């Protein structure tokens, strides 16, 4: 018998239009669907640092990668912390750092007056609250055909959460402004790296263009609570509209630099390239996110009669303008209603389309358009590392209306 | 799902000699540069790293290990220029055979 991963991928390829469930003996179509969507019971225990997550809502890929099961995403815009996905590149630091969060220190470099500040001091400089979509670069990796290494995320390495912290601009102003010649904001994570390895090989240090200095916040609060260790507390860099990896956790150093970080995670990691090519600094970095949406209900089966098809949509750095829904595999589209509240350009927007469907099987999917007219792509061309599958074809769900 | 094994994995397991397993353990615990054991747990090789995912919990098949060595997912280094293909195959077969804490 094949491994579960192979089953899932086969089903999802099938969900794009070709039914293959029947070609694998011993598994019914529904079981396939449940596994593909992530509605089956959890099989791996939650890691200690995330033991407070709701187990039935999570797919545990590894102890560092926890995915939110698709139908657990609701219509209230904000994803509750206890079902928010977790992707840690490295083992989190000791939990003692969040026990005394205000004492956490961050070094600021590449400013007129470089110095180290505590979270306590940062809290005196200003406060901004920003809802953003946090999405792992690898979200959707499990929807590609090529078996890229890494967790085979489906849709659940993403969530919209509310951050509160100090605007980076306020800190920079307090430190006399940015040094001349700086082109990037380079942020270093506080994970503890063991002996026996060159730090640059595993260091979580990401650079983003300096233009983001006016939107970045240094967050100590998430969804109304101190940022938990699992999500980067005591202090996390939030770069609105950028993929998760740029939102450095346990940030211990913020530097305005002329060049991008020398760490492998910046130079060769998180670079978009064709399948089979090695990562290199001249390839596009996983920075700004693409326009994307997906249906979160119904996902497997539903009674016939009135059905409220709903899901989530976001536009990276742009607000969502419209969302269309198809129940016939993209042959025809109907405009969905965008639900309030509108939490701003970096948040996701819930959408709903009421339909009546007779019994049968339907391929249901959604297609978002952002304020700049960018339309969610139909299919995502394979890239070596399997980053961000955004195509509405394979984000479709095959739903049985009973 | 813990019992699920690819046919290739079973073949690889059967094919590994004691000598080959010693070589694999040596690579994993010290020679791979950086050694797998710095970051990963694998009880059978007495590897106790905790920076990255535990191989005993992940129980990857040989293909998954090989892909990880070649691609370096996330912050994991790429080993394509550090190890020979033969060494990577050996590590992959060994990890697939022993991950989970059992003896090969």
TrEMBL record, chain A:
Residues 366-381 have a biased composition (Polar residues). InterPro entries: Ig_E-set (IPR014756), MoCF_OxRdtse_dimer (IPR005066), Mopterin_OxRdtase_euk (IPR008335), OxRdtase_Mopterin-bd_dom (IPR000572), OxRdtase_Mopterin-bd_sf (IPR036374), TAT_signal (IPR006311). Its cofactor is Mo-molybdopterin. Residues 99-262 form the Oxidoreductase molybdopterin-binding domain. It comes from the Bacteria. Keywords: Metal-binding, Molybdenum, Oxidoreductase. Residues 366-387 are annotated as: Disordered. The keyword tRNA-binding does not apply. Gene3D superfamilies: 2.60.40.650, Oxidoreductase, molybdopterin-binding domain. Residues 285-398 form the Moybdenum cofactor oxidoreductase dimerisation domain. It holds the Pfam family Mo-co_dimer. PROSITE patterns: TAT. PANTHER family: SULFITE OXIDASE, MITOCHONDRIAL, SULFITE REDUCTASE. This is Sulfite oxidase. It comes from Devosia nitrariae.
């Amino acid at each position: 018998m094949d491994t579960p991963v192979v089953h899932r991928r086969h089903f999802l390829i099938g969900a794009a239009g070709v039914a293959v469930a029947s070609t694998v003996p011993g598994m019914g179509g529904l079981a396939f669907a449940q596994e593909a969507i992530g509605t089956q019971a959890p099989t791996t225990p939650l890691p200690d640092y995330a033991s407070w997550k709701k187990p039935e809502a999570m797919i545990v890929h590894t102890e560092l990668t926890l995915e939110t099961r698709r139908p657990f995403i609701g219509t209230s815009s904000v994803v509750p912390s206890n079902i928010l996905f977790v992707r840690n590149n490295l083992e989190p630091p000791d939990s003692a750092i969040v026990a005394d969060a205000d004492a956490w220190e961050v070094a600021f470099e590449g400013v007129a007056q470089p110095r180290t500040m505590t979270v306590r001091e940062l809290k005196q400089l200003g406060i901004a609250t920003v809802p953003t979509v946090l999405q792992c670069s690898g979200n959707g990796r499990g929807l590609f055909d090529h078996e890229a290494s890494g967790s085979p995320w489906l849709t659940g390495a993403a969530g919209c959460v509310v951050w509160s912290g100090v605007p980076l601009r306020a800190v920079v102003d307090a430190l006399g402004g940015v040094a001349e010649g700086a082109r990037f904001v380079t942020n270093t994570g506080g994970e503890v790296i063991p002996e026996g390895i060159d730090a640059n090989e595993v260091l979580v240090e990401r650079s983003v263009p300096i233009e983001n200095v006016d939107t970045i916040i240094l967050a100590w609060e998430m969804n109304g609570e101190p940022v938990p260790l699992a999500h980067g507390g005591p202090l996390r860099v939030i770069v609105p509209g950028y993929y998760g990896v740029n939102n450095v956790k346990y940030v211990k150093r913020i530097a305005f630099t002329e060049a991008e970080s020398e760490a492998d995670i910046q130079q060769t990691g998180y670079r978009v390239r064709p399948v089979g090519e090695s990562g290199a600094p001249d390839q596009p970095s996983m920075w700004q996110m693409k326009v994307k949406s997906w249906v979160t209900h119904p996902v497997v089966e539903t009674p016939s009669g009135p059905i409220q098809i709903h899901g989530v949509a976001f536009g990276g750095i742009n607000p969502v303008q419209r969302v269309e829904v198809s129940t016939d595999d993209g042959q025809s589209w109907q405009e969905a209603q965008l639900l309030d509240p509108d939490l701003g350009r970096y948040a996701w927007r819930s959408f709903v389309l009421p339909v009546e469907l007779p019994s049968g099987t339907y391929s249901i999917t959604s297609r978002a358009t952002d304020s700049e007219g960018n339309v969610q792509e139909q299919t995502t061309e394979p890239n070596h590392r399997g980053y961000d599958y955004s195509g509405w074809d394979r984000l479709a769900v095959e739903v049985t209306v009973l | 799902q813990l019992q699920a094994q690819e046919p290739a994995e079973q073949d690889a397991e059967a094919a590994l000699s004691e000598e080959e397993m010693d070589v694999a353990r040596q690579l994993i615990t010290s020679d791979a540069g950086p050694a797998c054991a710095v970051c990963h747990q694998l009880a059978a090789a007495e590897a106790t790293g905790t920076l990255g995912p535990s191989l005993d919990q992940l129980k990857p098949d040989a293909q998954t290990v090989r892909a990880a060595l070649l691609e370096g997912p996330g912050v994991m280094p790429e080993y394509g220029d550090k190890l020979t293909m033969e060494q990577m195959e050996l590590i992959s077969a060994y990890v697939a055979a022993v991950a989970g804490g059992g003896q090969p």
